[in-house]
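Bench log, entry 3. Co-assembly request; chain sequences pasted below exactly as received.
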Amino acid sequence: RKEVEQDPGPFNVPEGATVAFNCTYSNSASQSFFWYRQDCRKEPKLLMSVYSSGNEDGRFTAQLNRASQYISLLIRDSKLSDSATYLCVVNMWSSASKIIFGSGTRLSIRP
Amino acid sequence: DTGVSQNPRHKITKRGQNVTFRCDPISEHNRLYWYRQTLGQGPEFLTYFQNEAQLEKSRLLSDRFSAERPKGSFSTLEIQRTEQGDSAMYLCASSSEAQINSPLHFGNGTRLTVT
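Structure output for the full assembly:
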């Protein structure tokens, strides 16, 4: 089992829709969590950190469920510009090699 | 621009040649990471520096790979005797030890093609 797993997608949704995807992690010692966005052939860029109580940044909401060991990302009122791959990142803080990236979920927003 | 800078952006080389990439992290960041990413995969950890000390190396990093950060500022990643399987995007990231749960900030990567 991979340490961090994501549905690769693609998720293909119309503009204005709400879309959500999850990321599961295997190590309960994981301590911090992030969502990154990566456009085609570009570097990953930090979208948001994920806090235990859940957090929101505009149209984006991130949640953490430690009991079930997953994090989620919800995008409301999706825009064409949201089309990208979304990577979840889990950090166990025990070592640098334990910053683990998922393989990403591809999102495509259609007009 | 005070972000992470990598060069070259692209490198095409013939199998068997040596290549070297450079990364300039965000100036106040003492942590520096190298990752490799292939199509459809997330970044895979290669190595980590805290200041000038190379503290961790992945098992992925064969003896053909070497990285340095001589003065705790910029870093170089060298691949000797390149193989076609080395073709990938090589990403550098930096973070600050001073910030709890500090996220990684990536450079725009060096795309290596080995022919």
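Chain B touches chain A at residues 31, 33, 35, 40-45, 48, 55-56, 58, 89, 91, 101, 103-109, 111 (CB under 8 Å). Chain B has a mean pLDDT of 93.
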